[in-house]
């Protein structure tokens, strides 16, 4: 055996040992004996919901990130007061509806076996694939938290944050700049409420009503689409105006054209720390898919609760 191959095998074994040590009881076939119907119930329910409500996938991806990024994939986001915190109030109801549908069906098939945490991660995984996005290994066996997570202003990225603030936020959680940019590509699906970009298109600064980083015609279109946002807070625009229902790298191409909806998106296209990755992903969708899948796996394994560190909730919105 060559020294290079021995080195690769050693690295692989170390990765496996590390996963086992850190994530305890997680595995790729965790429910094969305790809830064999889990894959079928998951696939049928997720597919049905997405077909009836096409915005579900983007909503669930946001729910997944809002649950995991604060520090742990433990379904704490489903508990009050975390669910009703300011930063989570805009989470679409379709995501919660899907989780509760799945939990209800699974409780009939295998009571008190499948955690709400695993339901969130597995749903995000399946919906990503349905939209044409990349796979990532689906490790299962998480337990649910006993209580909500205390949310603070710097817990999750906000539309008005600077690139430096977003880099710092992800850095505290162990993510590189490259991983942060890759994950930001999730904005290739979904929408943003007009209230999130109102300042950028109506009152940007004392010298400019609109952020000059916008494509001028695009900014005009946003102002027109959002003109009644004060009277109708539900008004929203697609994050990717080219292919809003498809998971592809058009989002990164849009950033290069001045078509980034949110301030954090436009900032990445011009910042020297992130611009190279934006350009790289705009040119190579396969590379972005690879990086995005790896980053999603990393997010899905954050702060795992296993054994007595958590519980299997009988209802996802209330601890036992």
UniProtKB/TrEMBL annotation:
This is Uncharacterized protein. It comes from Melastoma candidum. The lineage of its organism: Eukaryota, Viridiplantae, Streptophyta, Embryophyta, Tracheophyta.
């Amino acid at each position: 055996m060559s020294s290079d191959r021995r080195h690769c095998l050693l690295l692989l074994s170390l990765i496996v040992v590390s996963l086992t040590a850190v994530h305890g009881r997680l595995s790729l076939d965790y429910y094969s004996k305790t809830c064999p119907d889990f894959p079928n119930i998951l696939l049928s329910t997720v597919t049905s919901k997405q077909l009836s409500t096409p915005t579900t996938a983007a909503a669930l991806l946001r729910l997944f990130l809002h649950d995991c990024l604060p520090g742990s994939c433990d379904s704490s986001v489903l508990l009050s007061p975390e669910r009703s915190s300011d930063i989570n109030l805009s989470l679409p109801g379709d995501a919660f509806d899907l989780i509760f549908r799945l939990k209800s069906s699974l409780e009939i098939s295998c009571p008190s076996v499948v955690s709400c945490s695993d339901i969130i991660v597995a749903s995000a995984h399946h919906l990503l694939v349905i939209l044409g996005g990349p796979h990532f290994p689906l490790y299962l066996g998480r337990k649910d938290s006993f209580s909500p997570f205390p949310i603070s202003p710097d817990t999750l990225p906000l539309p008005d944050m600077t690139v430096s603030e977003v880099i710092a936020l992800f850095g505290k959680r162990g993510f590189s700049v490259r991983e942060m940019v890759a994950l930001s590509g999730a904005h290739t699906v979904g929408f943003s409420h007009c209230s999130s970009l109102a300042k950028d298109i109506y009152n940007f600064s004392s010298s400019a009503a609109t952020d000059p980083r916008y494509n001028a015609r695009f900014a005009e279109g946003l102002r027109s689409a959002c003109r009644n946002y004060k009277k109708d807070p539900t008004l929203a625009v697609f994050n990717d105006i080219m292919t809003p229902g498809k998971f592809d790298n058009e989002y990164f191409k849009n950033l290069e054209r001045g078509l980034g909806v949110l301030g954090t998106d436009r900032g990445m296209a011009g910042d020297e720390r992130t611009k190279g990755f934006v350009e790289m992903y705009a040119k190579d969708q396969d590379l972005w898919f690879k990086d995005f899948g790896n980053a999603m796996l990393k997010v899905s394994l954050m702060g795992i609760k296993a054994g007595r560190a958590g519980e299997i909730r009988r209802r996802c919105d209330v601890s036992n």
